[in-house]
Amino acid sequence: MAQNLRAKIPETDTLVIHDQNHEATRRFVEKVAGAGIGTKRTGVEIAECSREVAEKSEVIITVLPEPVHVKSVFGQILHPRLPDLPTLPSSSTAPNRLFIDCSTIDPTSSTDIANAVHSSSPDRFVDAPMSGGVVGARAASLTFMLGCPSHNGNGEGKLARR
Fold first, then answer.
1. Residue 42: CB partners within 8 Å, gap ≥ 6?
2. Are strands 59-62 and 44-46 parallel, antiparallel or unpaired?
């Protein structure tokens, strides 16, 4: 999934990644470099922790196996409160982050996490469980089911454009 994301985002963007399996992240960076994705540079940065990913990113995608993992990661990301992202030259305000959780977890856990995101910052949360597994990820044919409040700042449109 990450390789397909790197291939489809602009070369000038950086994909910041974190995984508990450090060997997997190292292999991923080598694979991206070997495939010529991001021709002038890999366009991939390995973060030391999930919070570092969130601090450096406008869009954060999480894919975790169980609710306990999702709650733990978001707990690390949201506490203490994240600093604002830098203001873009074309804007007078800092952009908000968009959290997209693609974990297949129960609705109550997802709602709890969304409430934690919305109560601690102006950032947005989209529940986007996916279907397709490893085969779908390799083929870039995953199906995402999006769920968020209508007042979420058009998170669905931003995700669909990516």
1. 29, 32, 33
2. unpaired
CA 45 to chain CA mean position, Å:
13
Q: In the sheet that 59-62 helps form, which strands lie side by side, from edge to edge?
A: 59-62, 98-101, 124-127
pLDDT band at 153, cuts 50/70/90? Answer: low
Query: ∠ at Cα 98 (18, 111), nearest 5°?
Result: 95
Residue type present at position 45: E
Of 77, 78, 22, 12, give the one whose Cα is nearest residue 46: 22
Q: What is the pLDDT of residues 33-51, one digit of tens each?
A: 876 654 446 789 999 999 9
**Region of residue 148 (left: phi > 0; alpha: psi -120 to 50; beta: else):** beta
Q: Which SS3 state, helix, strand or coil, does residue 123 take?
A: coil
